[in-house]
Write a structure and sequence with these properties.
Layout (H helix, E strand, L loop, with lengths): L6 H6 L3 H9 L5 H25 L4 H8 L3 H8 L7 H10 L12
Helix pairs in contact: 4-5
C-alpha cells in the first residue's frame, strides 16, 4: 500500500548527521572521534554479547575460555572498557565468529 508523504511533515524530520554534529562536533573533531570510538566499541560488544547468549554460554564460561575474569567480560558487554584487538579476536574465536577488514572511504 503506497502512502503519500506530507512535505510539511518531512521538513520537520531531524537529520541525524546534524544532530550528531551539534552534540558531538563535526567529523574530524576530537569530540566526534571519541564519540564514534565509543559507539563502535558498544556495537561490537553487543555483537559478542548476543552471540554468547545465542550459544547459551555464561559470562563465566566465556571468561574461562579466553583466560580472563568474568568481570572483564561483563565490563566489555556494557561498553565500559576498551577492548584490545587481540582480545576481540580471542573472544570472537571462542564464540565461533570471524571478521574481515575492508577499506572504508570517508
Amino acid at each position: 500500500m503506497a502512502r503519500n508523504l506530507d512535505p510539511a511533515k518531512l521538513a520537520k524530520l531531524h537529520d541525524t548527521s546534524a544532530i550528531l554534529d551539534r552534540k558531538y562536533g563535526v567529523r574530524g573533531t576530537a569530540t566526534r572521534a571519541a564519540f564514534e570510538e565509543r559507539a563502535m566499541a558498544r556495537y561490537y560488544a553487543e555483537i559478542l554479547r548476543d552471540r554468547r547468549k545465542e550459544l547459551k554460554i555464561t559470562q563465566q564460561q566465556l571468561a574461562e575460555k579466553i583466560g580472563k575474569e568474568r568481570s572483564y567480560v561483563a565490563h566489555l558487554e556494557r561498553g565500559e572498557t576498551d577492548m584490545q584487538l587481540s582480545n576481540f579476536f580471542r573472544i570472537s574465536s571462542a564464540l565461533g565468529l570471524s571478521f574481515s577488514l575492508q577499506t572504508v572511504k570517508y
